[in-house]
Backbone:
């Protein structure tokens, strides 16, 4: 529709015209007779210049009264100004207050992450959070674009289910009219049914895991994209995952430059990650690399680098705090914003430095047969600049539905894709067992109730064919693409252990 006002992002196309813009005050400063208002409208930020002599008394009063995050409307002329982001500013002819804001809580210094998370509903207005959500949006459209372009049918898997998919230890159970039900852990099993009806499908929906530990990559509610393809084997499955990840990274690099700038994302690293083919390592090869001397040396170097970065950030914060008293109002705002960034990063560094010695030991002592833990994955990915695909895990650490490797019965034809730069597993999947008797055995061996899987067994009774698929975790993908240290910044309202509000 044609809107009766102009979005900030569209202003460059209106130089010389008089426009109406609506937004919130991101930052205000000024001197006698002159106010600079940074107006934020969700599409961008523009500087509005208000001169006391150019506007009526009511407008000037409004401009002076505006507090941070007050909503206001400006009518004015768009002027080209190369110094401004977007290359334009607005010369106000009138300013109208829409809603004055109370003193805004996200300004004072020394906000820890928990303080910000408690105010997530407001924190999401700040630039970094805004940028991350825009990248998330682009990733979502890239995923649909890839699958739709390849002829997949999107399917909505049920959220309330009667069966576990990924083990019983992370189930959210609820009472479904006197019958036990679960919030779905994965749409895979229902996706397999749909693949037998449509050939290739993908789900894109919320999934739930009662994860009882606090880590930087576990949410209790996350979005998963699960393609499932009839007549695909493990190798074809890997190829789909690789193409999908390249499509995602390329879309974001092409369309989200301003967002990646705000996030301080190393775009070259992201571009390097699109080099195909991604390395494919068997689990056994991955274990050899993990336990090597080379890995130990790499981790020592990393500890040293983080200690140096911490020193630099602490010095910068001390300098900023010392300058704070003398600083002008606008400068104070900049210092406050920077303090938040520094605190978030210091938090991440502290956590990494707490963890690294443990990771070193765990890598050195890793024994064939165990599942790769989060830290092991992080360590492994430090060796590569692209995502790396690890396949053929010990069957004992994988789900009941995995097909066995015909060459080695100890192994399952499963695969994980580990994102580079330490991000670790973003994709898990594999080739599915097709044999009814084998599946029955596995359901029993995993302690799952056979009756809940009757319908699933039917898929092996009526035209069982080789098929494969995987699940891509949206939030972990956003974290990697944005270069964020924790999944809590990848969802609008993340749900984690101990975090249900806001
Ligand atoms: O490896 P997972 O558990 O695999 C499955 O659920 C399969 N049924 C998928 C399939 O083959 N269709 O989970 C898949 C992905 C992980 O690689 C990770 O990216 C994400 O889902 N994931 C989580 N993301 C955030 N928080 C959690 N607690 C997650 N658990 C899994
Ligand atoms: Mg997994």
Residues:
């Amino acid at each position: 529709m044609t809107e009766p006002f102009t979005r900030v992002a569209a202003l460059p196309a209106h130089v010389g015209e008089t426009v109406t813009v609506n937004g919130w005050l991101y930052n205000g400063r000024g001197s006698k007779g002159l106010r600079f208002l940074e107006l934020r409208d969700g599409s961008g930020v523009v500087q509005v210049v208000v001169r006391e002599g150019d506007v009526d008394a009511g407008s000037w009063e409004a401009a002076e009264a505006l507090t941070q995050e007050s909503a206001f409307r400006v009518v004015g002329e768009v002027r080209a100004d190369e110094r401004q982001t977007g290359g334009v500013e607005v010369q106000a002819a009138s300013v109208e207050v829409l809603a004055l804001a109370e003193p805004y809580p996200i300004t004072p210094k020394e906000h820890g992450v928990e303080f910000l998370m408690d105010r997530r509903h407001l924190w999401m207005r700040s630039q970094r959070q805004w940028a991350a959500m825009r990248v998330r949006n682009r990733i979502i459209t890239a995923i649909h674009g890839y699958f739709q372009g390849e002829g997949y049918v999107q399917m909505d898997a049920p959220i309330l289910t009667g069966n576990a998919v990924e083990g019983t230890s992370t189930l959210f159970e609820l009472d479904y009219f006197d019958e036990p039900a679960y919030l779905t852990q994965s749409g895979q099993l229902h996706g397999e049914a749909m693949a037998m009806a449509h050939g290739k499908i993908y789900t894109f929906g919320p999934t739930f895991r009662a994860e009882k530990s606090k880590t930087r990559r576990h949410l209790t509610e996350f979005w998963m994209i699960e393609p499932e393809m009839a007549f695909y084997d493990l190798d074809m499955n890997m190829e789909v995952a690789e193409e999908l990840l390249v499509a995602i990274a390329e879309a974001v690099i092409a369309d989200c430059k301003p967002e990646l700038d705000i996030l301080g994302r190393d775009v070259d690293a992201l571009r390097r990650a699109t080099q195909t083919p991604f390395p494919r390592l068997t689990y056994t090869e991955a274990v050899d690399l993990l336990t090597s001397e080379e890995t130990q040396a790499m981790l020592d170097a990393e500890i040293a680098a983080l200690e140096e970065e911490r020193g630099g950030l602490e010095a910068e914060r001390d300098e900023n705090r010392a300058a704070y008293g003398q600083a002008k109002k606008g400068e104070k705002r900049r210092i406050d914003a920077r303090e938040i960034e520094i605190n978030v990063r210091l938090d991440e560094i502290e956590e990494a430095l707490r963890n690294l010695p443990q990771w070193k030991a765990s890598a050195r002592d890793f024994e064939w047969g165990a599942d790769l833990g989060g830290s092991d994955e992080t360590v492994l990915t430090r060796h590569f600049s692209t995502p790396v695909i690890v396949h053929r895990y010990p069957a004992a650490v994988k789900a009941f539905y995995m097909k066995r490797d015909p060459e080695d019965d100890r192994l399952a034809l499963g695969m994980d894709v580990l994102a580079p730069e330490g991000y670790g597993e973003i994709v898990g999947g594999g080739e599915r067992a097709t044999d009814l008797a084998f599946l029955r055995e596995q359901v029993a061996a995993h302690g799952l109730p056979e009756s809940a899987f009757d319908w699933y067994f039917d898929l092996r009774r009526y035209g069982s064919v080789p098929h494969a698929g995987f699940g891509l975790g949206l939030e972990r993908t956003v974290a990697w693409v944005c270069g964020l240290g924790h999944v809590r910044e990848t969802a609008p309202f993340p749900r984690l252990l101990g975090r249900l509000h806001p």
Remarks:
- The first helix runs from residue 57 to 65.
